[in-house]
Amino acid sequence: MAFVKKLVEKVEKVSKKQIGTGTINSLLPEEVNPVLSFHYGIPSDFSVLAYDPVQQILAIATRNGQIKLFGRDNSQALLQSDNVAPTIFLQFIHNQGILLNVNSQNQIEVWDIESRLLSHTHAFNIDITSFAVLQHSWYIYVGDCNGEVSVLKFDPTQKKLLNMPYQIPFSKSYGEGAREIPVTNILLQPMAESRRVLIVFQDGLLVLWDLQSSEVVVSTGKGAQFLSQNEPKTVTSACWTCTHGSKVAIGYSSGDIYLWSIPVLSNENCSSEKRKSDASSAQNVPLLKLNLGFKLDKVPIVSLRWVSGDSKTNRLYANGFCDDPLYHSFQVLILNEATEARTIKLVLPLTESCISVEHISLSSDKNKQKQNTLALLLKSGHLCLFNDLDIERYLVHSQSKSPPTLPSQIMVSVPSYNSGVTAAKLYTPNGSVSSIEDYSTLAKKYPQFLSTNAKERDIHVGCTSMGNLWKTKSLNITGHLDGTINFWDASCPLLLLIFSLKQQNGGTNDSSASPITSLYFDAAANVLISGDQTGQVRIITFKKDASENILSFLQAKPGENYTIRGLKLPGAIVCISRNGNSKHFAVGTDKGLVVLIHIEEASILYQKQIQGQVASGIISMQFEKFVLEGFEKNVLLVATEDSSILAMEEDTGNAISPNTVHTKNPSRTLLMNVLEEGQGLLENQNVSTQNSFRETTSKNSLLLLCSENAIRIYSLSHAIQGIKKQVNKKRLESNSCYASLIHSLSDGIGLLLVFTSGKIEIRSLPDLHVLKDASLRGFRFSKNPNSYTSLAASSDGELIMVNGDQEISFFTTLSQKDSYRHLEYLSAVYRKDTSLQEESSYTINSPKEKKMGLFGKVMKDLKGSKVKNNDDNGTEYSNAKDFEQLSLILEAPNFPVVQERRKSSEKEEEVELSIDDIEIEDEQEVEESKEKNKAQQFTAFSKQKLGKGLQALKGKLKPKTDEKVNPGKVKVEEGPASSVDQIKAKYGYSTSNEMNAAKMAENKLRDNVRKLEDINVRSAEMANSAQTFSSMANELLKNYEK
């Protein structure tokens, strides 16, 4: 078999040399670099939303490892992880440029938004069921399926997550002896985010945990009244419903929504009666049960959001999601401090269920008021927006005599692509834009992608001058379902609309507009030819002065600045080709009809019916001049839908040969093109000279035929005569949906293939080797009119892929720079210079601290006290001191026995604890450190830290005694040892080295105890000195007052 294979390869090489294929200039591997330059719009298959209110960045995560970011001024960026896994949790660290993504494989991805790179992946070996970020700090709480809560810290220098020794074990929070129950929510208590955490278990138990004391403050949520209903219910969502953290709303799988009371953090100086009232406020019965109709249909409450307004407009957003499309509901209700007898609510007019919700506020202009928007991810894959001000207005005035209309929803789509793209062409005429404007000016002209304002969403026709139609670096022409033809400046990924043409017939708008199915544009002749699904062919000729005044062009009627002539053919128009050396162009229909038309007279010269093997639709045509038997003839090459090739005389339409070149296994044709010896590209080379006609072809010319599942190369001279002489063939592994020829600056040519799965290949010609490939994740080719997929490639390797009205992908396949303008600004969603403009709705700014005199400063330093800012109710809220104290708490173990099973599978260096790790400063060191930080001195030698150090020491020395009890588990370390020590180790007795180590540890412990005693003495002396100084200060103050 190997001999036969080598023989076949040798024969193929000899055959290629005989027809002169070596003279074709092919692409080189170093010239190819397929990369996604920019992604505009919403990726498909999304699942979770997240929002940074300071940077005003909206993140949309998908089920295939992609995350799309939307910033101000239409900036967008696409993050792609190598791990294709669905996202289950997504949260920002506000204003830090860090996005945390938790996927279904229990991995926490740390994304650097500024560089748009994945900086770290933190892996867990247990299912993550809840995730919470403590804003204004670097700490993260992670709940798992076993009821445990772990603490992580983001290290900004290493840009990675670190495990903290602090933990909340299930046995301590839920109770001893209970079976493991997942943690569904972790809520940081407002006004005490750095002090308390509310842990919500799946079975409904609510546990308020005090971080400093590592104790349960209160447990509620499973009272007798709650359990007596005898129906299975689990917690599915939770949120706070007040600014001071005294009430929490819990949503259940049964459709119930309960409000529970939670005790707030009291001031240390408050009375005991106040403390008792706070403790008794958390009764084991719900405060309120909300009847919103979810329970009737058993619709689970998958998300709850509370928005603080004024005293009368606090709102609760409840999302009921169910797989059954008939049972879903999204409701908004007024929820104030005082419970009213009747519920004021609004059911949003959604036609499908919502899978994720977020409140956003995007504004590109600092002078404009921020527009609060409710963003909903729908199950069908669309993003829906509501103006939150309209929702509030409706709820406030719904009980009036003239209630307002329901808030209108806006389905986010690519601007001016609402009707869907059915045909597209991309040209790069080697021009340059006449006027390069800065990005800030350009962004104002382009419609805001995420906006509920109709004026901001209107696209500005003619935002570039009409003259740029012939000067632009990249021109994209699209035909739409409604018959519209748009001209776009594609030199910038925002696709600036130059002008738009509607289908017109005899100077009036055609009421029966049909989808555009084929386009042909010749800038040199100022001609655009279009064909639609009904067989209507339109020849649009622009006058040469039409580009001088865009306003006059747009306001003019047909016949003033451009003329339209048309004719009707049977069948949909699927192919248009023009002979640049004559006044003819050919049109092919899906019925197999080839029609030659005079371009100036708009008259039919002839029409011929082509019969294929299976399907007769005309997919591709090309004009050629060929010498046959000493006579030069103008030839029209025709490729049918079933991969058959036929050569016709251009003048008469007669077939040159009765035979057609066809394949044994027909498949749909994508591309037919002539590969000329020593020539680069025959079609789509230059918009100013673009035509489908060539001079006399040589004998060594080849004919490329690309179908959905195979690529074939024939001898052109044989194909014209109806003889099948195949030079090369490659069968594709999967179905392709688009093919185009591209060429480099060195005139090397290659074949660009796009597959239905989103894979992109660039192959060399004529050997058809794969030079490089890439993939567009989430892309799915579709011919569905509601989600039509359109592709267009230029001669220099630019590829634009349009997926319905949701997204546009800009690919660059060749190694070339400066493909698009303003690409750096468009991708910059994160801005370092952004100030903290929007705080959390739960954070209250502390009042300015009063200036202290000399004695106040001295007393503060001596006592090491901290000033506490309290609100009118005496409730202490979070400030910088609280977070400093929090770092001391979370970065130290809170339980002496550390569990062997850690949640993270990340391998970290194990630090061996020895007695030398207990550092006790001597007198000289104490005196030096006293001047630096006296307040931290006493904290460092607190009883709590000393106890933890002794416990660690005890745990270190304990295995020494256990060795005698379990001699079988002793592991003798390799290395030089005396025979006596080996015998002692074998029978479980301590060796001489171990006895020496224990003796040294004992001496070290005694030395530390002596130092501690000296410290206690010095502390007492300092306390007496401080008291004496205080008395002197009081006497001095009394004398001064006298």
Explain how this protein is built.
This protein has 1042 residues and is α+β, with helices and mostly antiparallel strands. Helix content is 18%, strand content 34%. It contains 18 helices and 58 strands. The strands form 15 sheets. Strands 1-58-57-56 form a four-stranded antiparallel sheet, with no helix packed on it. The longest helix is centred in the last third of the chain and has 50 residues. It starts with a helix and ends with a helix. About 17% of the residues have low confidence. Keywords: Exocytosis. This is Lethal giant larvae (Lgl)-like C-terminal domain-containing protein. One of its GO terms (biological process) is Golgi to plasma membrane transport. One of its GO terms (molecular function) is GTPase activator activity. Belongs to the WD repeat L(2)GL family.
